[in-house]
Amino acid sequence: xxxxxxxxxxxxxxxxxxxxxxxxxxxxxxxxxxxxxxxxxxxxxxxxxxxxxxxxxxxxxxxxxxxxxxxxxxxxxxxxxxxxxxxxxxxxxxxxxxxxxxxxxxxxxxxxxxxxxxxxxxxxxxxxxxxxxxxxxxxxxxxxxxxxxxxxxxxxxxxxxxxxxxxxxxxxxxxxxxxxxxxxxxxxxxxxxxxxxxxxxxxxxxxxxxxxxxxxxxxxxxxxxxxxxxxxxxxxxxxxxxxxxxxxxxxxxxxxxxxxxxx
Length: 263
What we know:
Organism: Oleomonas cavernae
Subcellular location: Cell membrane
Number of helices: 9
Low-confidence stretches: 250-263
Number of strands: 0
Number of domains: 1
Strand content: under 5%
GO molecular function: peptidase activity
Radius of gyration: 22 Å
Main location: membrane
Keywords: Cell membrane, Hydrolase, Membrane, Protease, Transmembrane, Transmembrane helix
C-alpha cells in the first residue's frame, strides 16, 4: 500500500490541476490531443537530462561562489533546457494539430505539456525522498507542480498569439520562451540560493515569483474565457438571426441577458 500512496501523492496534484484547466476551456480539446501532449511532456525529461547532466558535471566543479552556482543550476541546468523542450512540444506537435484552432487552446496545451514533465519530475522527487516523502509530496503539490502548470499557461498564451497574430509571430515566440524561462530561473534561484548560502531570506524571492506566475496565468485564463464567451454569444446571435421570423408582438419583449457575466 505504501508505494501506491507514494505514487498517488506524486501524480494526483498534476491530474487535478490538469483537469481544472481542461474543464475551463469552453471548446474542449480532443482527449487524444491532450493525452499526446501530456506524454510528450513526460518524454522531454530524457533530453533535459541529456543536456543538464553533462553540462552540470562540466560546470559545477568550477564554481565556488554559492550564488553563482545557484544561478548556473537555476538557469543553465533547469530553466533553459526545460522551457526549451516544452516549447518544442507546443511548436512541433500542438501547434500543428488541427484542434489548435483558437487562443485558449495554446494555454491548455501549454499547461498539459508542462504537467506531463512535472508529473514525472515529481514522481522522481517523491520516490527518492526516503522517509520524508510525505513532506516532499505536500510541499511540491503547492509549489513546484502548480509552478510548472502556470508557466506552461503563460508559454501557451504566447504560442497562441504567434499562431493567430502572424504579423507578430517572431516577437510572440521569443516571449513564449523568454518569459517562462526567466520566471522559472528566478524561482529556482531563490530556492537554490537559500539552500547553498543557508540564508532563508532567498526563499522569499522564490515565493514572490511563484505568486506572480499564478496570478499572471489565471488572469490570462480569465481573459481567454471572456473571449470565448464573446464568440459563443456571437454564434448564438447568428443562429437566432437564421431562425424563422418570430410573430409580431404588440409590446416590446424584455431585454435578454447572457447567462454568463462578463466583467
